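Memo to structure team: turn this sequence into structure tokens by end of day. - J.P.
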Amino acid sequence: MRLQRSIASSFLAVVGSLAAAQISFATTKGLSQIVTPDLQPEGDFSLSFQAQSKRIGNPYELQGELGLTKWAEVAVFKGFQPNELIFGTELGLIQHEPYLLSVGFVNWSPHSHVDPQPFIEAGYYTEHHKFIAGATHVDYRNEAIVGYAYDLNETWRAQVDFQSGSGNSSTIGVTCNLTRDFQVNPAIPFLERKGKARRSG
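Reply from structure team:
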């Protein structure tokens, strides 16, 4: 019950702050499972709540993402069950659409003794088609990252992504901007092997 109150109060705080501050305009940025090579614009702060299966990661999370400069962003996930903080950062080496190239790390959780997972990722972004490919290092193995999104318009995006390795999955989903400050991203993961995937960003 205490956890449910904490989640409910956090969700209300998120909704309230978005409504009052209009932190950033919603975009169809990001995919369901993988980090993407495009960055949060400089000075933009986004706040989101995620509910997902325990098989994927922490079932209840808040995420804050801040564009520090036009070539750097940071992200912090606050998990509730278990209680943990997960950090990530991304540096844009090339940010001239249609060509994107980024490096960084995701899923660093000192509290849970999880090391940062470095990645490199390239993207080819047109008005409607977004292609993503890259690699990440998880524990003692290298894993492939692949994603594709189709932007129907500024409101709707269809997307699919994949990260190889034990415990990771393919994900198919959509993104819908309900208003310019609020979006939903329902997705269905297809787990390939036993284990847990970690939220990438």
